[in-house]
Every structure is written in structure tokens, then in C-alpha cells.
Amino acid sequence: MPDDYFARYLPLLIHFVLASALAGALVLLSRVIGYRRPTRAKLSPYECGVAPVGDARGRFSVKFYLVAMLFILFDVEAVFLYPWAVILRQLKLFGFCEMLVYIAIVLVGFFYIWKKGVLDWGETSLPPGEVRRGEV
Questions:
Q1: Do 102 and 95 meet the contact criterion of CB atoms below 8 Å apart?
Q2: Is the pTM above the cut of 0.85?
Q3: Mean pLDDT across 41-48
Q4: Long-range CB contacts (< 8 A, 24+ apart) of 62-69?
């Protein structure tokens, strides 16, 4: 190993040391000379002008995650339409038929999740006289 191997990394080490020292000094100075007067309004969480209600660690419905995953899935599938549309004239009838098969498979998946009720976010109505579990 050459003698100056570690010497080539000296500027990088100096950069990290100076960046860390500057960041630490700025945080320390803001803590020492910063103006702090906490009030109840300043310490409360704020989200889009709406007063917070309930626990911040509340659980999300599983439907939220299902819809999020399905959005990503169908979004990625829709991205495949752009390159196909760009070279459609070169692919001719074969490319068109292949894309129809692809779109049919995507639509079968879409109709399946639609029929399963994954996309229904509203409250489901119960027949008269039935009560949801946990309600009296």
C-alpha cells in the first residue's frame, strides 16, 4: 500500500469534521441564545387548521393500506401504457393485440377488487334491526 493512501482522504475527513462542528455550534447557539416562551397554543399539535381530536397513535383501517397498495399497483401498470403508445406504429397489429390482453388482465383485477368492496370507503348500511358488533 502506498504511503500517501490515507493522505488522499484527509480533505474528506476535514470536511466531515468542519461540517459536524458547524452543525453542532449552530444547534448549541440556538439553544443558548434562542428566545423561548412556550404557551399551551405553541405546544399543541397543528394540522391544516384543524384542531386535533383523539389520540395521535390511532390505528388506520386496513382498507387505507389496501387502497394505497392498489393505487401503486395500478399506477405502475398505467406507466407501461406510455412506452407502448410511443412505439405503437412499429408494433402494428401484434402490439395492439398484446396491449389489449394486458389491459384485459388489468381490468379483470380491477373488477375483482371492486366486487370485493376494497374500494368502498363509506359506511355499509345494515338491514333494519341489526346492530354492529360493539354497539348497543
A1: no
A2: no
A3: 73
A4: 63/118, 63/120, 63/121, 66/118, 67/118, 67/119, 67/121
